[in-house]
Specification:
The complex is a heterodimer of chains A (about 300) and B (about 170).
Chain A lengths: L5 H25 L4 H76 L9 E9 L7 E3 L12 E3 L5 E9 L2 E6 L7 E5 L2 E7 L6 E5 L11 E4 L11 E5 L10 E7 L8 E5 L5 H7 L15 H7 L1
Antiparallel strand pairs in A: 1-2, 1-12, 2-5, 3-4, 3-12, 4-5, 6-7, 6-9, 7-8, 8-11, 9-10, 10-11
Chain B lengths: L3 H19 L1 H4 L9 H12 L2 H19 L6 H16 L7 H25 L7 H21 L1 H9 L8
Helix pairs in contact in B: 1-3, 1-4, 3-4, 3-5, 3-6, 4-5, 5-6, 6-7, 6-8
The chains are: A alpha+beta (about 300), B mainly alpha (about 170).
Chain lengths: ~300, ~170
């Protein structure tokens, strides 16, 4: 390391500092005018060409670095845009869902039921149970006159199931395909009982004292003998033609309603006379109006 | 006698640093903060130059910086750069261990320069900066300069070697 003379460096340092402070003080007091401004302008003019050349030289480098940093910025922007896109898609899906719900509700409003005088209550499906029981939860209950046993239809008037339980502000719907109570139906002019098949989305139709076969596509509707449902409501269709075995006919029925796609339902106040429903709850009556169907003989008595 | 060629080289080097600072690092910044290659040039120059030369060069380039590329009062950077040149020539033997030591030393010298700049600038009402902004500059600029000094380690090795140094003024 080269030697240096401390005795000269310190006075020089102090001198330079004093000069710098004096210049600075003068410049501050002059507020950008006076001799210091002349010095500044002269230096700027002197260095300007060098700066211009330097700028021309470093410009490609600066642009390269900027581009490199832009790549990182673009990546971040890309990620942000992807997140934004995902959010927009989620919003769009929500809007589509709302629109589908709106269409369902509009269909419900325009639905003409076989029994027009019945009180109908529209309700949104707000919850679903697990795949074990597949209960549906709706957003209206006792406050809307919905009671256990009331039939539940979809926007097309197809039978969905019945109210299992209700409370102020909500109710539970048990779908037909999981309702062990079954339902009394009519195929053509034959009466039968429609029962769920465990673990299946289809149901089995059993017609006692059957005289005629059923064909694929034959419509299955609620029976006039049913106490739980108004008559004539579409339930499903025969999956495959079947013939009576002896006096009994067994056929598979595919319900019209897919509960997985339901957004809203219609709850029908049935039976229309609460007194009759209360009478159905008596022990003498095998079933009440809220939970299931009676046998044909009993139904005849009820009627 | 002062070597004319070497003097020109030093002047070109310092003005080149000034130009790079005002052009390249005027555009390329990290988090709004750029390295200060003028300070780095002053410090590296002080590593080999005679004390008087180093301080005069620091004063001149600081004054020039204030004149051409600063809105602050003339003399502010002259004070800061002269101060750091003085501190550098007082401590440069500690950096005589190798390029890494030079880089760390250059970072510390940059810290001194930025600190001086902030203190004097604030006292003279030339810099109005909050603690957070000042802290970021006190932290990042020395780190950037340390990194650049590491990149320049082949050059600083030649400075330390002293046999082929271009700054033996």
């Amino acid at each position: 390391m080269r030697e240096f003379r401390d005795d000269r460096s310190v006075p020089l340092f102090v001198t330079l500092l004093v000069i710098a402070f004096v210049i600075m003080t003068l410049d501050v007091r002059a507020s950008g005018a006076g001799p210091m401004d002349t010095v500044r302008n002269g230096a700027s003019r002197m260095i300007a060409p060098v700066q211009t050349i330097g700028a021309a030289i470093v410009d490609p480098v600066a642009r390269l670095v900027e581009n490199l940093s832009d790549i990182a910025g673009l990546r971040n922007e890309n990620a942000a845009l992807r997140a934004e896109l995902a959010q927009v898609q989620a919003d769009l899906a929500a809007v589509e869902q709302d629109r589908a719900r709106l269409e369902v509700l509009e269909e419900m409003l325009g639905l003409e039921l076989a029994v027009e005088e019945l009180v109908r209550t529209n309700a949104n499906i707000i919850g679903r149970s697990d795949s074990i029981d597949e209960l549906l939860t709706i957003d209206r209950g006792e406050e809307a006159g919905i009671l256990p046993g009331h039939p539940v239809l979809d926007q097309n008037g197809y039978v969905v199931g019945r109210i299992l339980d209700s409370w102020n502000g909500g109710a539970q719907v048990v779908p037909l395909i999981r309702d062990v109570e079954g339902i009394t139906v009519t195929v053509g002019d034959q009466f039968g009982s429609l029962q769920p098949i465990i673990g299946s989305s289809e149901m089995v139709l059993i017609v006692l004292e059957s005289a005629r076969p059923v064909e694929e596509g034959d419509q299955v509707v609620t029976s006039q003998l049913s106490l739980s449902f108004p008559r004539g409501l579409p339930v499903g269709e025969i999956v495959a033609g079947a013939r009576p075995q002896g006096q009994t006919l067994t056929a598979t029925v595919r319900p019209f309603t897919d509960t997985n796609r339901l957004e809203a339902v219609i709850v029908v106040a049935w039976p229309p006379d609460p007194a009759a429903a209360a009478a159905d709850d008596t022990p003498e009556t095998p079933v009440d109006g809220a939970t299931g169907d009676t046998t044909p003989a009993t139904r005849e008595e009820d009627r | 006698m002062i070597d004319f060629r070497r003097t020109v080289l030093v002047i070109v080097g310092l003005i080149g640093a000034l130009v790079i600072q005002t052009t390249l690092f005027g555009r390329v910044r990290v988090g709004g903060i750029a390295p200060d290659v003028v300070i780095l040039a002053v410090v590296l120059f002080a590593l080999r130059a005679r004390p008087e030369t180093a301080m005069l060069a620091a004063f001149s380039v600081g004054f020039l910086f204030d004149a051409v590329a600063s809105s602050s009062a003339l003399g502010l950077r002259a004070i800061a750069y002269t101060t750091v040149a003085f501190v550098a020539i007082r401590t440069r033997e500690r950096a005589d261990l190798g390029p890494v030591a030079v880089a760390v030393w250059a970072g510390l010298m940059t810290l001194v320069a930025i600190g001086t700049l902030l203190v004097v600038g604030t006292l003279f009402g030339q810099i109005a900066m909050g603690f957070e902004q000042a802290g970021r500059r006190l932290l990042l600029v020395p780190l950037f300069n340390l990194g650049i000094a590491l990149l320049l380690s082949p050059f600083t090795s030649r400075l330390l070697d002293g046999r082929r140094g271009v700054m033996g003024l």
